[in-house]
Amino acid sequence: MSHASPRPAVHVSVAVIGGGQAGLSMSWHLKQAGIDHVVFEKREACHEWRHARWDSFCLVTPNWQCRLPGFAYAGDDPHGFMLKDQIVEYLDAYIASFDPPLHQGVEVTHVARRAEGGFTLRTSEGDYSADQVVIANGVYSQPVIPRAAERLPSDIAQLHSSNYRNPQQLPDGATLVVGSGQSGCQIAEDLHLAGRKVHLCVGRAPRSPRVYRGREVTDWLTESGYYDIAYESHPQKATVREKTNHYLTGRDGGREIDLRRRALEGMDLYGAFRDIDGTTLRFAPDLTRNLDEADRSYNNIRQLVDQHIAAQAIDAPMEPPYTPPWAPPAEREALDFRDAGITGIVWAIGFTPDYRWIDLPLFDGRGHPVHRRGVSPVSGAYFLGLSWQNTWGSGRFADVGKDAEYLLGEIQAVRQAPRAAA
């Protein structure tokens, strides 16, 4: 009985791993430069936007910031906030606009150096080799759920934020949302506005104003050049990559989120989640501090806008300083979920990247990518789509294309180096 021999490894100049906005942006630049490449996506292109967002999800940045390379937003609502289905339509139109060499449903399971130079890639459709590789699979690979969740009884419904869709998905009763980043705050609001009783564990995520002194804050920060500050020049340099995104929303035409006001409306707030002991949920006594720190961030952004307005002598209306409308009367460190009528929990404490399939010395002692503007210590290996890879807009629709353009220059320099040596 004969057996078909495995096909020889297919060679490409550049392998791009990940078919989200980062991988697609890289592909656009490579295609414009005439460099042969393949984009591997283990699910379907832009899977997270299609299948890991709730029904009322919308962008938190205005539509005009959707400026993927060669495909800036051209709709009639530049200062609006695209809904989930509109985001998917924008991305599908982007793919159709330049027909990238996408291999969808193909998982890359191993990347390593090749003895003769370049890299080997093991994939679910066979082996490949590449002169250079761009790792653009994102930082939202593995949902984080604490091990303490395993001690909850089976009648308590549990969802990660990536699996939440709408309030009807959860059983009748109160819901605990753990985490106050962008997803946690917006999901808590989604439940609250639907008339659900919400308990929210508030972490250390900062918050942002939406409109200040007559303009969208995004416009002010863009005009002032704040969004163009490079990581290496940022005053918070060593910590800015560790910070959670500011919470606000594009819902209802765009507005800020003030958890203190939600507390006045009946949302119960607690400090960071700590543990579960029988039917008792335990929280850190840090609610006051976390709310104060979020407000400090909010006021700092306002101050940046004030400084820009003053420096440019812009005529803009004044606004009164922010006055907190509510403060926690005491720190609540425990809650019996049975007594509170909690029937569901949404874990909104983020994701952790999965780089176990990369057999290259690209990571530090904590497993984080080592890079400068996406260029790794290994010649020919790059990262794209990381938070603060270079600026605030890195990884986002706003500036991921600029990062991809920079990496194109690095890729071309490596390609030309052997010719120069010859």
TrEMBL record:
Q: Which InterPro entries match?
A: Auxin_biosynth/cation_transpt (IPR050982), CHP04046_FMN-dependent (IPR024000), FAD/NAD-bd_sf (IPR036188)
Task: Enumerate the SUPFAM superfamilies for this protein.
Answer: FAD/NAD(P)-binding domain
Q: Name one Pfam family in it.
A: Pyr_redox_3
Q: Which UniProt keywords apply?
A: Oxidoreductase
Reply yes or no: does the keyword Oxidoreductase apply: yes
Supply one GO molecular-function term: flavin adenine dinucleotide binding
Keyword hit for Aminoacyl-tRNA synthetase: no
Name the domain of life. Answer: Bacteria
**PANTHER family (alphabetical):** FLAVIN-BINDING MONOOXYGENASE-LIKE PROTEIN (AFU_ORTHOLOGUE AFUA_4G09220), FLAVIN-CONTAINING MONOOXYGENASE
Q: What is this protein called?
A: MSMEG_0569 family flavin-dependent oxidoreductase
